[in-house]
From TrEMBL, chain A:
This is Potassium-transporting ATPase KdpC subunit. Belongs to the KdpC family. It is found in: Cell membrane. It is a single-pass membrane protein. The lineage of its organism: Bacteria, Pseudomonadati, Pseudomonadota, Alphaproteobacteria, Hyphomicrobiales. Part of the high-affinity ATP-driven potassium transport (or Kdp) system, which catalyzes the hydrolysis of ATP coupled with the electrogenic transport of potassium into the cytoplasm. This subunit acts as a catalytic chaperone that increases the ATP-binding affinity of the ATP-hydrolyzing subunit KdpB by the formation of a transient KdpB/KdpC/ATP ternary complex. InterPro entries: KdpC. One of its GO terms (molecular function) is ATP binding. The gene is kdpC.
TrEMBL record, chain B:
It comes from the Bacteria. Keywords: Cell membrane, Hydrolase, Ion transport, Membrane, Potassium, Potassium transport, Transmembrane, Transmembrane helix, Transport. The system is composed of three essential subunits: KdpA, KdpB and KdpC. This is Potassium-transporting ATPase potassium-binding subunit. Belongs to the KdpA family. PANTHER family: POTASSIUM-TRANSPORTING ATPASE A CHAIN, POTASSIUM-TRANSPORTING ATPASE POTASSIUM-BINDING SUBUNIT. Its main location: membrane. It comes from Bradyrhizobium lablabi. Part of the high-affinity ATP-driven potassium transport (or Kdp) system, which catalyzes the hydrolysis of ATP coupled with the electrogenic transport of potassium into the cytoplasm. This subunit binds the extracellular potassium ions and delivers the ions to the membrane domain of KdpB through an intramembrane tunnel.
Length: 200, 567
């Protein structure tokens, strides 16, 4: 058995070097050369400044923007580092609410959000994605129904014709991949950027 | 449930089944030491590794030596991860300035990764440096997966050999698996993932100013290279805290679909390796059929439960299913399917938060793990887990007809059945035992995020996931406490090694037996009768073991939900 000690050390170190250093570093170099944009995080720049990533949702509160889904991410409390405070769309600490189906906290939160949205647009039923938090807290998308639901508010805040806003939503609705995989969706940041363009 | 939803599920199954034969053929060649199309490039590397390490690739090992080699390999892996985590503040590739990880969390994480569990008590982007992610975690993702496959192949050799003392050479099996199977697939796979939008960079976290003028720090890193092996090796440890729900760790519906395929690909193909090595591919297909029956039953229940939603949503007139904790780009079907796959295999990656699933939707992942993750299972671990149940099923069948049971030409006798039972019984001992301890300790109960039966399920899920080396979680539970770090680590350790050692003892004793040709009295192990028998044994043993615990958790929660009771 003693003669197994040498391979135990050397095979481990060599395979560690191959899989833990050579492989990720080589992949970083190759991927960076072939897909430079994606490898850096699909960043979006405007006037030379990074305004976010096409894949990462951000918080929108203003009436003139489409809002993303509620987010359950948190950040360390600046006053007490053992606690956390709510920090929606914190892209340095992803996570979901982890509230279960019989949670009173969750039920109260959903009820409150539904009431608020009904006040904003009483004529249509509230899409479920607008009152549920995503798994990552960084979901960049909402459902097409979730976008259409907000058209009334956005058009009013921007003094744009509703039809024009609807048109923008339709342009930014992505279908299922190959008509089959995933679900139809609207990227909120891309839609809001297009809105800003249209309002100029 | 929708037609297009079921179509996605069927397409998924069809692709996995289509990959079984070609991958099985290739892996059989690799483990038989035959040349492959990659040999011209990889063979010199392989020989170099043996030469430096003093490995004689012709010299095979007795099962005990094989097992000891495997254990030594893990001791080294543990020390590397633990050391890196404790020292990360002093080491390079740490642009976010992460400080040293606490002792108990480092211990838990090191055990977690050498056992192929990848339980996340750490939050990737908020705790670990790039160096730890690469050198610590990515490397062990490869090696714990290669170990699992090596052990499964060793057990297969036990069945396929006749009157032999040895079951292969651990160092050769691990090296060949890493070089010929895992690395080449991961290289192509990484590029695909980056193309889909996954970052692969050593640069700093990005500081962005959002459209509304707020500051947003966006964590990036060498994500794709780690995710490739995380899925292929059924490891499941996320680069980010939210794992495959994070848009950077799973950017599109296509990346999600391919990730799901890669969880099952190698595990399913190993059933074909088994068939080829014992000389009858139909033996492999029969085992895959057992897995398939259990898998589809689980998918149907979870998909149905999630599409139905919860009583809270229904009372407010919200339709579209239970979207709490799920991403829009995946929706109900791809989230439900992913949850069943990741727990059927011992992967543990999640693309939706299992804690927020409906009671029954979340119960299926729990059952999958409690059955021992034998539905395809972890790479390697799933096959040897399933073969233990097969031994038991054959034994039960033998008792019924009063004849010494045989399987693929080997007599199954007292020693084999004892080893199989030991491995099967040690799992519930850990997850039921520690759950019982946790629910009477006030400090452990305080870690629950949800009240009522759901809180109990969080604890049961944690110990089940750890013991089964899965790594997925009902994430609300605060697992990063002294109690959970140590007890979960002990569950992971026992769940891995107390399964492996009996399985290897079984391999050794089978290899030393003579192969006997089938006779008129041999139970055919390639037909529907055999498949039904194994499914029955799995469900009876599983049901007797954990049904009472399920009744206290998800079952009572489902009844409470239907009565609109909130906690």
């Amino acid at each position: 058995m003693l003669r197994e000690i040498r391979p135990a050390i050397l095979i481990l170190l060599l395979l560690t070097a191959i899989t833990g250093l050579a492989y990720p570093l080589a992949m970083t170099a190759i991927a960076g050369a072939i897909f430079p944009k994606q490898a850096q995080g699909s960043l979006i720049e405007k006037d030379g400044k990074v305004i976010g990533s096409a894949l990462i949702g951000q918080e929108f509160k203003d009436d003139k923007y489409f809002h993303g889904r509620p987010s359950a991410t948190s950040a360390p409390d600046p006053a007490d580092s053992t606690k956390t405070v709510s920090a929606p769309y914190n892209a340095a600490n992803s996570g979901g609410s982890n509230l279960g189906p019989t949670s009173k906290v969750l039920a109260d939160r959903i009820k409150e959000d539904v009431a608020k949205l009904r006040g904003e647009n009483p004529s249509v039923s509230v899409p479920v994605d607008l009152v549920t938090t995503s798994g990552s807290g960084l979901d960049p998308d909402i459902s097409p129904e979730g976008a259409l639901f907000q058209v009334l508010r956005v058009a009013k805040a921007r003094n744009l014709p509703e039809a024009r806003v609807r048109e923008l939503v339709a342009e930014h609705t992505q279908g299922r991949m190959a008509g089959l995989l995933g679900e139809p969706r609207v990227n909120v940041l891309a839609l809001n950027l297009a809105l800003d363009e249209a309002s100029k | 449930m929708t037609v297009i939803g079921w179509f996605q599920i069927i397409l998924y199954c069809a692709i996995v089944v289509a990959l079984v034969k070609p991958l099985g053929w290739y892996m059989t060649r690799v483990f038989n030491g035959e040349a492959t199309f990659l040999s011209p490039v990889l063979r010199p590397v392989e020989r170099g590794l043996y030469w430096i390490s003093g490995v004689d690739e012709k010299r095979e090992q007795h099962w005990l030596t094989y097992t000891v080699s495997m254990l030594l390999f893990h001791v080294g892996g543990f020390l590397i991860i633990y050391g890196l985590m404790r020292l990360q503040a002093l080491l390079p590739f740490n642009p976010a300035g992460q400080s040293a990880v606490a002792q108990d969390l480092s211990f838990n994480t090191a055990i977690s990764f050498i056992t192929n569990t990848n339980w996340q008590n750490y939050g990737g982007e908020s705790t670990l440096s790039y160096l730890v992610q690469m050198l610590g975690l990515t490397h062990q993702n490869f090696l714990s997966a290669a170990t699992g496959i090596a052990l499964a192949v060793a057990l297969i050799r036990g069945f396929s050999r006749s009157s032999m003392r040895t079951i292969g050479n651990f160092w050769v099996d691990v090296t060949r698996c890493t070089l010929y199977v895992l690395l080449p697939i991961c290289i192509v796979y990484t590029l695909f993932l980056v193309w889909q939008g996954m970052p692969q960079t050593l640069g700093d976290y990005v500081e962005a100013t959002t459209l509304e003028g707020a500051k947003q720090t966006i964590a990036v890193g060498p994500v794709a290279s780690q995710v490739a092996i995380k899925m292929l090796g059924t490891n499941g440890g996320g680069f980010f805290n939210a794992n495959a729900a994070h848009p950077f760790e799973n950017p599109t519906a296509l990346s999600n679909f391919v990730q799901m395929i890669s969880i099952f690909a190698l595990g399913a193909a190993l059933t074909n390796v088994f068939g080829r090595m014992v000389g009858n591919e139909r033996q492999g297909w029969a085992i895959l059929a057992v897995m398939g029956v259990l898998f589809l039953a689980g998918v149907a229940v979870t998909y149905w439960a999630e599409a139905n939603g919860t009583s809270t949503l229904a009372s407010l007139g919200l339709t579209g299913g239970n979207m709490e904790g799920k991403e829009v780009r995946f929706g109900i079907v791809a989230s439900s399917l992913f949850a069943v796959i990741t727990t059927a295999a011992s992967c543990g990656a999640v693309n939706a938060m299992h804690d927020s699933f409906t009671a029954l939707g979340g119960m299926i992942p729990l059952i999958n793990m409690q059955l021992g993750e034998i539905i395809v299972g972890g790479v390697g671990a799933g096959l040897y887990g399933m073969l233990l149940f097969v031994v038991l099923a054959i034994f039960v069948a033998g008792l019924m007809v009063g004849r010494t049971p045989e399987y693929v030409g080997k007599k199954i006798e007292a020693r084999e059945v004892k080893m199989a039972m030991l491995a099967i019984l040690v799992l519930p001992l850990m997850y039921l035992g520690w759950t019982a301890v946790a629910v009477v300790l006030p400090s452990a109960v305080a870690s629950m995020a949800n009240a009522g039966p759901h809180g109990f399920t969080e604890v049961l899920y944690a110990f089940t996931s750890a013991t089964g080396n899965n790594g997925s979680a009902f994430g609300g539970l605060t697992g990063n406490t002294f109690f959970y770090n140590l007890t979960l680590a002990s569950s992971m350790f026992v769940g891995r090694f107390f399964m492996i050692v009996p399985a290897m003892a079984l391999a050794g004793s089978l290899a030393s037996k003579k192969s006997i040709p089938p006779s008129a009295g041999t139970l055919p192990t390639t037909g529907g009768l055999f498949v039904g028998l194994v499914v029955g044994v799995i469900l009876i043993i599983g049901g007797l073991t954990f049904f009472p615990a399920l009744a206290l958790g998800p079952i009572v929660e489902h009844l409470a939900m239907n009565a609109s009771t909130l906690f």
